[in-house]
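Late entry, written up from scratch paper. The run itself happened at the end of the previous shift, but nothing got recorded in the book at the time, so transcribing now.
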Amino acid sequence: MSSSSGESERLRIPQPLIKHRVPSGRGAMEQPNVTHDGEARLSGMFWLAVIATGVATGLIGDGLMIILAWAERLSFNYHSGSFQDAVAQTSGLHRVTSLVVAGIFGAGSWFLIRKYLGHEKSEIDDSLWRGDGELSVRRSALTSIVSEIVIGLGASIGREAAPKLMGGASGSLISHYFKLSSAQKRLLVACGGGAGFACVYNIPLGGAIFAAEVLYGSFALPAVLPALATSLIATATGWLYLPNRPTYLDIPNFRLSATLMVWSVVAGFVIGIITVGYIRVIGWLAVLRPSGTRLLWIMPLTFALVGVIGIKYPQIFGNGKDIAHQAFLGVTALSLLAALAIIKPFVTALTLGSGAAGGLLTPVLATGALLGALTGSLWLHIWPGASLGAFALIGAAAMLGAAMQAPLAGLVIILELIHGGFNIAIPMMAATLIATVVVRAVDGYSIYSARLPKLKQ
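Output as recorded:
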């Protein structure tokens, strides 16, 4: 094609409305992200599928959070405010009993699901990275419902895995209805997974970036556009039940300072090394987690052990949201920070290693916040001049971005979760960058790739 003839740039799919190039004759696709659609064509039917997936994911996200809220009320009479406080108001026996019940229910349910539906796919990461995104709605739905009930009963795992999975499963099902190609289905499932993530935390931009950066692995325009659309539709739909406000309220506008900037560089290296170890433990336990009838006794015993630990530390119950919130507010005592920075990741790893299905986003975020606040409190004795909550916020972003091996998603998620933090964005970026580089250089696994199931020979 001659660039001087003014002919249409016919390489792009779909074709633009304006058929002729600009006077210079240069192609629009010379901008690297403005590629043609390729196999995952953004056709009219695909966009209808995006809308349907966004709406379905938002409604399913609402349903899963209703189930979670019901389980929390049933187990700890929790209605609003701090879940940690509701747990603390119960007796030690009640806490242990609640987790034992969660272990028995979860073990029995997941045993039956894995025995009778083992041939059906319900691992969204594995399905996207090694396949075309095909997921079983039946197995995904049952796994997700059980996961939210178990979390509501106090299990120390994240709630986001279920809506992420169901967003992807919705995309998989809808792709068949709209007769999409395998490539289009894979893109739609990635967008649905990010949208499920987005709607339950009210983070539409973070969910879209997560879909592109982590699940689909591309920031090309044909991937970003549907990711944005699906996440915003799912988040807006989720407002039918879920609140339109930040997850973490009343976080101060922290002030940038020299001491915070220097600490962020040091903390990036420290948090990166700790994250490598944590991911390796998660990967090791993922392979060793019990299967078959062993699940029926190992999970209840493990949950009982976590319950016993929870007699002294009620903060470990649930996904860790309240732990992170208190760290952001700078109201946690140094001794408690030190204890929880060790205990919370330990009990989360135990819970996942027992065979439970759940997420790691909030537990990792909370651990990063604890590490940030702990090291920050020690740093202030050397060089004062910053708020403890600022250290926690930076630590949360650094560990989340490094653990996901997705620094952009990690940063945006933290900023959206608190609807603020821009005053300390520079040290936050520095710590996240350094921690992510450390994890990539030392090992390279993420909390998602380390948990992939063992390949069958």
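Confidence is low (pLDDT under 50) at residues 1-8.
(Scratch paper discarded after transcription.)
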